[in-house]
Amino acid sequence: MTDAPEGITYAAAGVDTEAGDRAVELMKDAVRRTHGPQVLGGVGGFAGLYDFSAVSSYRRPLLATSTDGVGTKVAIAQAMDVHDTIGFDLVGMVVDDIAVVGAEPLFMTDYIACGKVHPERIADVVRGIAAACEVAGTALVGGETAEHPGLLGEDEYDVAGAATGVVEADDLLGPDKVTAGDVLIGMAASGIHSNGYSLVRAVVGHAGWTLDRHVEEFGRTLGEELLEPTRVYSADCLALARDPKAQVHAFTHVTGGGLAANLARVLPAGLVATVDRASWDVPPVFRVVRDLGAVPRTDLENTLNLGVGMVAVVGSEGADDALARCAALGVPAWVLGQVDQDDPAADRSGLVAGTKGVDAGAVRLVNDYRG
């Protein structure tokens, strides 16, 4: 086949493979920093390779996997032209879902779809992913960047990722270990994290607020507050779970659906968790969203984390040790509530149960928030 004069090239169609290669050159050192001796082959292979032989010491290794994205928070990053923090949001959303079952996240891959490859921008995104993987102790073993001209605008992109971890079957955390009398330990969120941005963006858009607006309650601009990276909990959760004095029975990652809906997923049927709204100070960003949009409390609670990013369910005798361990790890934590036996004759109003299709326990939020 011969080339037609002035024919249509791949570049003319909107795909620049050389730009993709430049992006890889810019990001590869950051990716390599996440690699330990278990990662084989380096950067650029068709598949990431991970030496899994260490699990030979496990009696019954269970693989755990999770995948997620960042959602419409990427619109904030694009509007502000700040792209090196979104990686923490992606990694947090993925690896922390693995840590909740007690699994160590071993490796992760990422996928970036964009309208046009801007090498420095793509490299910034991946450098953020790699930095967050270092915090989580997870190897970034591969990824893909795809140009989709005509589907996405030149300055638009979306990110997604997947991770795999392993846990000894006897150490698996979850509803089977939760009992009446357990204590709920709330672990502070760093901000909105990566869920609920469609609501938040609608509120600030309706109010006519711009991202460069300085907000006194935040001590910085609106955009800077909304772009605050997600706290990555996995390493801290695993350290807490491995402390026998803490008596960790389960974790729940507070993502889409809010605190009650996610907590209910890790409770066995027949138990009810009571969460005290007055046990923590709701961060200013959530109060501003509430007041600015006159958002009903039910919508806030069903959409945003309201300052609680992770919950540990621990034995009653382990609560003090769990709090001390969190303090040593630098994670603000407090007693959020407790788990009790369900009373079928009790008032059922306000109970949250049956979320995410899981037939499990229930959660009731009581009292009023501070402020």
From TrEMBL:
Q: Which InterPro entries match?
A: PurM-like_C_dom, PurM-like_C_sf, PurM-like_N, PurM-like_N_sf, PurM_cligase
Q: Which residues form the PurM-like C-terminal domain?
A: 180-342
- Write down the SUPFAM superfamilies for this protein, in alphabetical order: PurM C-terminal domain-like, PurM N-terminal domain-like
Pathway in which this enzyme or protein is active: Purine metabolism; IMP biosynthesis via de novo pathway; 5-amino-1-(5-phospho-D-ribosyl)imidazole from N(2)-formyl-N(1)-(5-phospho-D-ribosyl)glycinamide: step 2/2
What EC number(s) does the entry state?
Answer: 6.3.3.1
Q: What class of enzyme is it?
A: ligase
Q: At the top level of its lineage, which domain of life is listed?
A: Bacteria
Into which family does the record put it?
Answer: Belongs to the AIR synthase family.
Name recorded for this polypeptide: Phosphoribosylformylglycinamidine cyclo-ligase
Q: What does the organism's lineage look like at the top?
A: Bacteria, Bacillati, Actinomycetota, Actinomycetes, Micrococcales
Gene (UniProt): purM
